[in-house]
Design a protein that fits this description.
2 domains, 16 strands, alpha+beta, 11 helices
């Protein structure tokens, strides 16, 4: 199995400058390759340029600009071109599927924050020797950068990535390792129902509170963003010290919210994995759930629109994004795989409207957000607990079903 490790780097002042130049030059390579593809399609009889053609030009590009492109790893530049090729592949896939295409865009230097090295030892080297108390990663053109290794890297390092987050630099490793020993069997199964009032509710009736990290930090974020908005928009190298501090404060607040959300997701998922052998959850289409409602044109008024509940839907979308369901479910699946547990996603339709006692399905069974009262048999319970019970039963049925 493949596992990722993310560690904080401690570059010197000179190394920090070199890392910034590495990002800038890879960003320039990405934008230049994108411009070449655009020009070829527009002006040369709609010719499409592929990754192989652009990769073959790297040798000449490095020789033409040795101080900009020639100092960096050839493999990392190929990885940047592959990133652009994947963006175009995703664009054409969305076009064929009838989705919103989203043509690949040029990247500003502030929006290009990652450089990938496809193989350890080719332009980079992860050095974690027991004799040296300080772990280092060697990067071509930068040098040996100290790393705060908070846990040992198990397995064989395959890829290395360097990422900038605000003023901090991180190294991300992917390591191939043997499948770990599964946790002891507990004989317990559970279904979970994701929500807003409670982060999740289990089929056992337990409620995990929603921490609402984004809402708690909203006042500080609003003040910091208002302070940042007072500065005029100028180039990055023309910003004053106060402007840079205002930008950094907003970034620090967002990073804190992100880390708190991740911490809550990891701890909640770990508790579920340790206590249950089988976990069923709703197969939520979060991207569709947070879409803005379509406008309703007014038939009597030219250019007018009817109320469509956009303001209320915006508040709900904000709460859904703040809960971080997608991140939690991804972490839950990963931890379950490592622990030898089974996780199944089931269709969420009518899970909160179906009576677990008699099977009656009706929208009237849920008169309020929290209350469930069956109109057929009179069964009453918490609506989220009912949803979790139905999710568990659907998951068990799906597990026992023969493969198609």
């Amino acid at each position: 199995m493949i596992r990722a490790y993310k560690s904080l780097m401690r570059p010197t002042v000179g190394q920090r400058v070199a890392l910034g130049e590495m990002l800038r030059d890879h960003c320039s390579l990405y934008n230049g390759a994108l411009q070449e593809r655009r020009d070829a399609y527009r002006h040369v009889s709609k010719t499409s340029i592929k990754y192989g053609q652009q990769s073959a030009q790297l040798k000449d590009i490095r020789a033409f600009a040795p101080e900009r492109q020639g100092r960096w790893s050839f493999s990392s530049q190929q990885a940047t071109l592959r990133r652009l090729d994947k963006a175009f592949a995703a664009f054409f896939r969305r076009v064929k599927a009838g989705d919103t295409p989203g043509y690949p865009r040029f990247r500003g230097v502030n929006w290009f924050d990652t450089v990938d090295f496809p193989r350890d030892g080719d332009g980079c080297r992860w050095d974690s020797t027991p004799r040296d108390p300080a772990t280092r990663v060697r990067l071509q053109g930068v040098g040996h950068v100290k790393v705060n290794q908070h846990r040992p890297v198990v397995g064989t390092v395959k890829t290395v990535s360097v990422k900038r987050e605000g003023k901090r630099w991180y190294v991300i490793l992917t390591a191939e390792q043997m499948q770990p020993e599964p946790l002891p069997q507990t004989g317990r199964v559970v279904g979970i129902d994701m929500g807003i009032a409670s982060f999740l509710t289990t089929s056992n009736g337990e409620h995990v509170a929603n921490p609402r990290h984004g809402r708690k930090a909203a006042a500080k974020l609003e003040a910091a963003q208002h302070a940042l908005a007072r500065f005029p928009r100028v180039r990055r190298d023309k910003r004053t010290a106060n402007h840079r501090r205002a930008v950094q404060k907003v970034a620090d607040l967002h990073r804190r919210v992100c880390r708190l959300r991740l911490d809550h997701a990891h701890k909640t998922a770990l508790d579920l994995v340790r206590e249950h052998d089988f976990i069923a959850h709703e197969d939520l289409k979060i991207r569709n759930m947070v879409k803005a409602p379509a406008p309703k044109p007014a038939p009597e008024t030219s250019g007018g629109f009817l109320p469509n509940g956009a303001a209320a839907k915006a508040g709900l979308n904000h709460s859904i994004n703040d809960a971080g369901w997608g991140v939690f479910l991804t972490i839950l699946t990963s931890k379950a795989e490592s622990a030898g547990r089974e996780v199944i996603a089931v269709d969420p339709r009518n899970t909160s409207r179906t009576c677990p006692e008699c099977g009656h399905v009706s929208a009237e069974n849920r008169p309020t957000q929290e209350k469930f009262h069956c109109q057929s048999c009179g069964h009453s319970a918490h609506a989220d607990t009912v949803g979790a019970l139905n999710v568990l039963r659907a998951g068990l049925v799906r597990r026992e079903a023969p493969p198609a």
